[in-house]
Specification:
The chain has 21 helices and 2 strands. The protein is mainly α.
């Protein structure tokens, strides 16, 4: 089992767990929830069918399973990856602090005064591309805070708290995972916390999840309205429906998959536009995007868009995505150049982020991450070629020592 549980397989295993957990949560929610007031989510939940979901998920599970079993030219043991990562993290020193400060500064710059009080959810004053980059850096910021805390506990805790405030102000589900990311950062920094710490951080993720979900339903958004709503509601109001709130959120993946499958505007041309690596305007995505959503803040899911063309298309997507992400992580991690371990970590982070987004975001979102992974692969090829070129030009005596 340990030989199978490798770093490169984590995204694929995570996707399988997400889909299985989502199915269980969707089933629980549909059997216990009473929907009295229609909302933008209502038509999505109406599409849920247990047997239909089982058939679709079976195609996905087969694709993921085969992708996990097929060879990709090697594997990356977790213990070896963490050992190398810890050494590298220690040598980077203040760069982790700079990374956290960059994530904080970019979030403040793109949100501006909307971080305190905004008229709508996800309001921003910055360009869309910069806002997207700020969003990508948020989990890295919390992770880096944990790394900093290993050598500077007070500074790391302060940075972690500031990151948590930013996540809370955005009503993002990452706020619930704050402690998980922080503890993971400590592991990356070389600190091995006990199993009790991991259990506590995972439990906090479930306990904190109702908070950002409640904040999203407010008339005003931002740090000040959310704080006021939190103090007014009190713990009882927030956590009274916690089981239904959590299962509704985690289970939304499956009915969204089924709802997306039924949409007739998902054509081969629409998929071509989404997979086009050109900027959104040139690719035609800006014109297409409004129609590829259930609601303004509910996009179709990538797995649903592929499943629209049949179960075999969903299987091939899951198979191809699992193999590609594994290959990217393995190739970068087997390059023994110290700096390339950062590339391997970036590949893993992009794969894990893609794992979460392909279940609730359009194909275009995930393909942009795959494009970035491909660019990192090109970087790996260039560094290997440069190493070979330098080695060939070293004197033979030095080359022998190398």
């Amino acid at each position: 089992m340990r030989r199978f549980l490798t770093v490169d397989r984590l995204p694929g295993l995570g996707l399988a767990v997400m889909l299985g957990l989502g199915w269980a949560c969707a089933d629980y929610y549909t059997h216990h929830a009473v929907i009295s007031t229609p909302s933008p989510f209502t038509p999505v939940w109406t599409a849920y069918d247990r047997q239909g979901a089982a058939r679709l998920l079976a195609w996905a599970f087969v694709g993921i399973g085969v992708g996990l079993l097929l060879p990709v030219g090697g594997s990356v043991p977790i213990a070896d990856f963490l050992r190398r990562a810890s050494r590298l993290a220690g040598s980077l020193g203040g760069l982790w602090t700079f990374g956290v400060l960059l994530a904080l500064a970019l979030s403040v710059a793109t949100k501006g005064y909307y971080m305190l009080d905004a008229p709508r959810y996800l309001a921003s004053i910055g360009p869309l591309a910069l806002s997207s980059l700020a969003g990508l850096l948020l989990p890295f910021g919390m992770l880096a805070s944990g790394v900093v805390s290993v050598r500077s506990p007070r500074l790391g805790a302060l940075l972690g708290c500031l990151m948590a405030v930013v996540l809370f102000a955005g009503a993002t589900r990452l706020f619930a995972a704050s402690l998980v990311l922080y503890v993971a950062g400590r592991v990356l920094g070389g600190k091995r916390d006990g199993i009790a710490v991991w259990i506590g951080s995972l439990a906090s993720a479930f306990l904190l999840l109702p908070i950002p979900l409640m904040c999203r339903n407010q008339q005003r958004h931002g740090l000040l309205p959310y704080t006021e709503a939190l103090m007014t509601a009190g713990p009882d109001a927030i956590f009274a429906r916690a089981p239904l709130t959590i299962t509704e959120n985690l289970g939304f993946t499956v009915p969204l998959l089924q709802h997306t499958v039924q949409m007739r505007n998902i054509t081969a041309e629409a998929m071509r536009v989404q997979m086009n690596p050109m900027p959104a305007q040139l690719a035609g995505w800006n014109d297409l995007m409004p129609s590829m959503r259930v609601h303004y803040f509910i996009p179709y899911s990538m797995i649903g868009e592929f499943a629209h063309f049949g179960g075999a298309a969903l299987l091939l997507l899951c198979l191809g995505w699992t193999l590609f992400t594994r290959w990217c992580v393995v190739v970068a991690a087997t390059n023994r150049t110290p700096a390339m371990l950062l590339v391997a970590a970036a590949q893993l982070a992009l794969a894990m982020l893609g794992m979460t987004q392909m279940t609730q975001y359009n194909t275009r979102n995930v393909f942009r991450m795959l494009d970035m992974m491909l660019l990192l692969m090109v970087l790996d090829v260039l560094t290997r070629g440069l190493q070979h070129w330098i080695t060939l030009r070293l004197p033979s005596s030095v080359r022998t020592l190398a």
